[in-house]
Amino acid sequence: METVNHEKFRKYLxxxxxxxxxxMTAMTRKKDGSDFNTGSSDYRHPRLVKRLIIRNTKDYxxxxxxxxxxxxxxxxxxRIYITFNPRSLRKAYSHLMQHTMKLLLxxxxxxxxxxxxxxxxxxxxxxDKDSGKAKTKYHMLDVDCKEVPFDVINQHAEVVDVFPxxxxxxxxxxxxxPKSWEGLEDVEFKHDNLLLLKYKHFS
Length: 203
Hints:
Helix content: 25-40%
Mean pLDDT: 88
Distance between the termini: 9 Å
């Protein structure tokens, strides 16, 4: 089984300023039957295979292919995700510097050494977080059923596009009131999260 949204999401990328970037991530999940440690220095969580910074549309295509090759070489079911809102290099770098200065001022040599040895990974983590977001262009609904309940969704939000997932859809919507989605069955509101670009199952 394979689901691919790579081409479909391309038109929603926003590189209107040099500060805007995206994070693209390849990962395996235990619920898909993948339970191993890749040994990569690029991650701390054992499900994460690799995480890359996307600065333009060329990066978008090249990094997607790079993650495909890496993930397929593991011969395990994998997923490739992207942050659906652009991230800010300046914000992430500022948070990283504040975090590093805090350790320095605490005079915690061991922690400071540990942090500086994984600077790249930590920087990507700050980009990934909501605090590293450049702006809110979209919200998302994670629909965990095959039929998207458009009759309900259209009452509360403007649908931008629908991206198939393994068990349902990621519905990209214009920013809306999070409370509108409370209590809805099979619909989970995401203020800022990851959108599925590819799912591939190895049986």
